[in-house]
Amino acid sequence: MSRVKSVATGKSRRAMVGGMPMPGLTERVAKAVFLAIICAVVVLPFIGVVSTSLAPAEEVTKAGGFVMFPAQGIDLSAYRSIFAGGTVTQALLVSGFITVVGTTIALFLTCTLGWALSRRGSVGNRPLLLVVLVSLLFNPGLIPTYLVVQQFGLLDSVWAVIVPVCVSAFNVIVVRAYFVGLPDAVIDSARIDGASEWKLFWHIGLPLSKALVAVIGLFYGVGYWNSFFSALLYLNDSSQWPLQLVLRTYVVNGVELGGQELGLGSETVPPQTSIQMAILMISIVPVLCVYPFIQRHFAKGVLTGAVKG
After folding, report:
1. What is the pLDDT of residue 298?
2. Closest Cα to residue 296, out of 214, 179, 206?
3. Which of 15-19, 170-174, 253-257, 287-291 has the lowest mean pLDDT?
4. What ranges do the domains of the chain cover?
5. Which residue in 52, 57, 40, 91 sits closest to 281, CA to CA?
6. Which among 111, 205, 207, 224 is least buried, having the fewest CB atoms inside 10 angstroms?
7. pLDDT of residue 104
8. Are 96 and 244 in contact (CB under 8 A)?
9. Phi, psi of 137 (to 5 degrees)
10. Right CATH number for 81-307 from 1.10.3720.10, 1.10.150.20, 3.40.640.10, 3.80.10.10?
11. pLDDT band at 23 (very low <50, low <70, confident <90, very high)
């Protein structure tokens, strides 16, 4: 009798994991099928975009749209055409300038402001912190922002896309919270050694917050790379358009890119579907390349900065 009871107890223990019953075979199969369907819904359109941008012109024309798997090999003519020095190439250079310069300026201003607000007792600390919090709660509105940009003479300039959003109140609060949590002993010992406030920030604050700076830089970089609405409002000159406006004009709205716009002259233009998918890939790839290197810093950077202080 005791042996039967022990066998039953062993089976019940094997059926429990962490105090919870183990899912049955049917439930596990259902979960696997559900996850497979979700992955297919996410991955298959991406594969279609990549394949269409790389498929030969004849295959794209024959398919009349998307090509899931190019059967006739790979053709890079769509990418060569958009990098021929025309509209897309110019837009890519503009987006690169906006992203690099804007992210650099935004990181510098955000980190220095966060450091200043984290130093208790500094001149104007509380009023400036109150201004940052108020700007976090209240949005100035579209028309006042446009009038400010106009008064500063930034219309039809890429600086109109960079300057108005170069400081995020949320990011400032996160950076300030992280700096507040730095060990006081390290800061005090550096002050005793004669370090100025700038040296404290540059040699202690920034090296100890590399993970946070990387994550905040990713936020700013993705925001500038995907800047669309600001460019739509402030940039009337098509030569100043970033890649997202070109994407909207020639992919979403379906406006055709001819040889003149692509810089090909009298050369044969690839199918419009291939060109559109190639533009879409160019707009996605930079973020996909950067994100894996920053992902490991998310929990350590943002969550620590949000919890401390």
Report:
1. 62
2. 214
3. 15-19
4. 21-75, 81-307
5. 52
6. 207
7. 95
8. no
9. -90, -30
10. 1.10.3720.10
11. low
Exposure string over 183-200, b if 16+ CB within 10 A, otherwise e: eeeebeeeeeeebeeeeb
Question: Torsions phi, psi of 106, nearest 5?
Answer: -65, -40
Question: What does the mean pLDDT of the chain come to?
Answer: 81
Distance, CA of 66 to CA of 55 (rounded, Å): 9
DSSP letters spanning 235-252: ---GGG--HHHHHIIIII
pLDDT higher than 50, residue 17: no
- Tokens read off for 117: 């607000």
* pLDDT(309) > 50: no
- Give how far Cα 61 sits from Cα of 56, 65, 266, Å: 9, 7, 20
What does the pLDDT look like over 99-137, one tens digit per residue?
999 999 999 999 999 998 888 777 778 888 888 888 888
